[in-house]
Amino acid sequence: MLSRWSVKTGFVFFASVVAALLCTLCAAVSMVAAHYLASEYLADEVTAAGDRVASQLETRGHVQDPLPQARIRYIQVVSSRGRVVAATKALRGRPPMAGITAGNARRSATSVVCGTVFPRRECHIVIAQLAYLGGQRWTVYSAAPVVPAMVDPRLAGVVLGSVVLLPTAAVTCLSRRVVARTLRPVSVIRSELDEINATCPGRRVPIPPSHDEIHDLAESINHTLGRLQTALEQQCRFASDVSHDLRSPITAMRAEVEDALMAPQLTSVNVVGSAVLCGLDRLQAIVSDLLTITQLDAAVPGLHDRIDLAELVTAEMRSRPHRTKTIECRLRGGVLVTGDRLRLARLLVNLLDNAERHADTTITIRVFRLLDTEGDRRPASGVAVLEVLDDGAGIAPDERELVFQRFARLDASRSKDPGGTGLGLPIARQIAEMSGGTLTIQDSPRGARFVLRLPLAPSATGGHTGDITALTT
């Protein structure tokens, strides 16, 4: 049932129950203390009444019978032979009320007696005191009803009302107001969130002025809404860019086919087929890149192979027999990293394709490592570096991050390669980041310099081979 309650109702109920339990405990302690004090006071009164009779017996040598009745109704004087000599009117003709006697070391003894000479179902506190008469020990009994557990019904009512009911009611009302005031910003935040949708992604929830957990929650919600808005805008922009890039080759192929149908005598199947194949190649490249991006966005885990970057570059050079630019390789063997071989090969291919489109004559590929050494010159950790440089026009510093955005193509890139997809470099950076590294564009004396940094594989900081230099045309 508690799971169906609201936070406000549950907290108020919990506070009320705790307050009631604590107040009841305080009331019980108060009643126990009152009972103890009242019992002590009664015992003193009974002792004083018996002491007066014992003093009269020892001073005068006798006592009158019946004994004068004061506040204590039950008093008896018992001789050394156990015979009741004198008693108050309530006990005339009754046997001794108790069988206790005070010892020589103590002049009094206390006991609680139920029944016997007293009314049925009543318990009395009985105090026995010694009195000496004619060299014999006489006993004076005095008794009074024991104090009830609640002392007095009126006292119990006062304690119950002032110690239990009033504080519990006050705590309940106060906690209800405090919780309502505390949760009011939560209701406002919830109402605002209910109204935020795709048509108004820029709206934010109000932040309360208090610096508490709800304030932090509102800030976290606004940060999350900001990230969602950015993701939504990227998705919309991505859909628009994909539509535009897919529409261009489709439009070109449609135009070729329509021209061929309108003037079949002026064209041939070979010409139309070649034009359509070019458009299909671009469509295939776009779809392939989109599939790769989808897999990367879904965070599909890749393999964890130990890869020698120099061997990876060499294998890729062998698979590209037809090149339009001179490629110079400066590779240091033994630079091992951990990652997915196919993905890293795709990253390298994208960098080479980009460099081949923009280089004038030469592309340079470098593989080496950067080591952090300790004081004894032993390698402690390091980074594997793969650089791809071209001798083209380069990329302006303010445009270096722009080229890593999806479908972002600079004017120079569009003029040199109008059929590009604008997804190669974004895919390369995403692969680098999923492999635990970075891909950036660094300064270069000429052209563009793409730098891939990956953490070295374990136990890959020693035993490297020398440089390998190759010129390929």
Task: Describe what is shown at a glance.
By secondary structure, the chain is of the alpha+beta class. The protein contains eight helices and 13 strands.
How would you explain this protein's 3D organization?
The protein is an alpha+beta fold and 473 residues long. The chain folds into three domains: 6-145, Beta-Lactamase (2-Layer Sandwich), CATH 3.30.450; 213-297, Helix Hairpins (Orthogonal Bundle), CATH 1.10.287.130; 305-472, Histidine kinase-like ATPase, C-terminal domain (Heat Shock Protein 90). It has helices at residues 7-60, 153-195, 213-262, 269-297, 309-318, 341-358, 411-416, 424-434; strands at 74-78, 84-87, 108-114, 123-133, 136-145, 305-308, 326-332, 336-339, 362-373, 379-390, 438-442, 449-455, 467-472. The protein has a six-stranded mixed sheet with strand order 11-12-10-9-7-13. Strands 2-1-5-4-3 form a five-stranded antiparallel sheet, covered by helices on one side. Strands 6-8 form a two-stranded antiparallel ribbon. A hairpin with a 5-residue loop joins strand 9 (362-373) and strand 10 (379-390). Helix 1 (7-60) packs antiparallel against helix 2 (153-195) and helix 6 packs antiparallel against helix 8 (424-434). The longest helix is centred in the first third of the chain and has 54 residues, at 7-60. The radius of gyration is 51 Å and the shape is rod-shaped. The two termini are 79 Å apart. Residues 373-380 have low confidence and may be disordered.
